[in-house]
Design a protein that fits this description.
CATH topology of one domain in chain B: Histone, subunit A
Helix content of chain B: 25-40%
Mean pLDDT of chain B: 92
Distance between the termini of chain A: 21 Å
Structural class of chain A: alpha/beta
Largest sheet of chain B: none
Oligomer: heterodimer
CATH class of one domain in chain B: Mainly Alpha
Order of helices and strands of chain A: HHEHEHEHEHEEHEHHEHHHHEHHEEH
Shape of chain B: flat
Helix content of chain A: 25-40%
CATH topology of one domain in chain A: Amidase signature (AS) enzymes
Order of helices and strands of chain B: HHH
Distance between the termini of chain B: 33 Å
Strand order of the largest sheet of chain A: 1-3-2-4-6-5-10-11-9-7-8
Largest sheet of chain A: 11 strands, mixed
Number of helices of chain B: 3
Mean pLDDT of chain A: 96
CATH superfamily of one domain in chain A: Amidase signature (AS) domain
Radius of gyration of chain B: 23 Å
Number of helices of chain A: 16
Shape of chain A: globular
Radius of gyration of chain A: 22 Å
Largest interface: A-B, 66 and 52 residues
Amino acid sequence: MFEFSSIEQYHQSLQEGNITCAEAVAHYLEQIKKTGRLNAFIEVYEEEALQKARELDNQRRQARPLGKLHGVVIGIKDVLCHKDHLLTASSKILEGFTSIYSATAIERLLTEDAIIIGRLNCDEFAMGSTNENSAYGKVLNALDETRIPGGSSGGSAVAVQAGLCMVSLGSDTGGSVRQPADLCGIVGLKPTYGRISRYGLIAYASSFDQIGIFSKNIPDAALLLEVMAGADDFDSTVSERPVEQYSSSLTENKKYRIAFFNEALDHPSLDPEISKAMKGTLEDLRQKGHNVQPVEFDLLEYIVPAYYVLTTAEASSNLSRYDGIKYGYRTPVATDGLTEFYKETRSKGFGKEVRRRIMLGTFVLSSGYYDAYFTRAQKVRKLLYEKIKLIFNQFDFIFLPTTPAIAFRIGEKMTDPISMYLADIYTVMANLAGIPAISVPLYTHSSGMPFGLQVLSGRFNELSLLRVSNKLMEQYPKQK
Amino acid sequence: MVEKLAHLARLKFNEEEKQEIKSDLQRMISFVEKLNELNLDGVEPLLHLSDEVNVLREDEIKGSVSREEALKNAPLHDGEFIKVPKVIKK
């Protein structure tokens, strides 16, 4: 039976003739069928993936040069355009929408001969932390099916966790890659804002959104990042900086300067077991000769409120494009005039959480409240940005928990939006400041559920981030 | 307030939903009012996260989509134009 450990290992097996791409794809198709109840996939491209695999197998036999992602089986979150494939953001309002172009990130994966096996379930428009807000139903955590996988990229996390593809893509606006990765026990990377082009990514909050990667190990995440990152004619906010060869330069022996916040580790909402595990790791790293220091951080209580003001404002603006006219769901109700038509369409097309966020965003942007809420939050963002910059003048990394608790039970957080929002307390910081961050799966809770360690680095310092994460996974292998 | 916001957002809520969204909004607004505790005198709002400024290109026609592609996802069209409910009334 096919067992995946890393892309490098897979490529070696392909070269040695121990496996073919077609066999790998067939394996995943079977696994997806067997685990259908997890509801990770919205659609599986069975025929297309097999066909592509056969083509790649032929190419390899003819000894033609192979793409960096030759035959790598990838699942993508249902927020990324993939030409001639359906795309819904798990929303009824995009029912039947077919992409007429591919996202730059997807285009680059395909150019390197990746195989896209299907699109993955998520919270509607990437809004949520549990993957319970999907028009296609909730996703289950494969390690305990009574628990949520996290969100919003819950399907993407479960697809890698349960071995339904090799790596997957998500999007991370406030933790939507790192949080489900943490709760599912895998790697979740959010790059610097502007490292990967957002062209073809359905917009939630444009100054926060970034495409992220789920994987079982660091070298695989590094390789995907290397392929997708870099300048793009179609996104004016993407960075022109050259892309480093992350995957071939992961080994480094260095003593790091690591900052942590007592305010975060002693936070009343943090599970004491998570706090203890992290403190243990920090102490061990100190003993190994790294410079591990507490830094005062008094903004922790403000970052989630600032995040919700800014992201809902951007969302209310971004989601105004769904009008029932250009694409997607259109109300069948006969209405009197256009305004009524928009209201009918949008009220039936959007789910509850999306409507809630559009309403809050409309409020903070409305005349008379704009300065008191929106501008104020932008100022808080500036304070945080400057504070983070100062920290990275003195330190290589900030270590934080990824989430305050292990995966919730299904239904636990659905009624109270605030308690769900507070679960984002450790992840939104990286999106507000635009810095890269990763959740590294290091720990197992007494309940048997996994949790991760979050590492943040300075802007565009993905290389250091991946190196230290690689080292952490080697040094602290999870007890099975 | 709820009705005004709903109109601005082009949404509508029935009576029951109105009560619910009202209470949700109240709770969310008092939650974000936490920001009032901070002294922000002299702090400039952060407007852009990207370092890239004025990314320009030559003024060439490229990257547009065909009419057929543009109409592909429109729920109602006549092959040439997208159709909308009647706007101008007699």
